[in-house]
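FW: tagging you since you asked about this chain on Friday. Here's the raw sequence from the shared folder, copied in full. Didn't touch anything.
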Amino acid sequence: MSAVKEKIRKTLIKLVKLRMWGGKHTSFDNLPKGFPSHLGKELKKKQSN
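HL: got it, structure written out here
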């Protein structure tokens, strides 16, 4: 797995464990804001596919 995918995976797991997913109104549109700009752009590309 690439380093970018691994960072995204770890961040998503952390959000789930902290119950910050869904119940706290974390939408997919706001998710890239929590990543550095170069990773957020890649995440936006994946969401549009």
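FW: The longest helix spans residues 3-17.
HL: agreed, and Residues 3-48 form one domain.
FW: great, closing this out.
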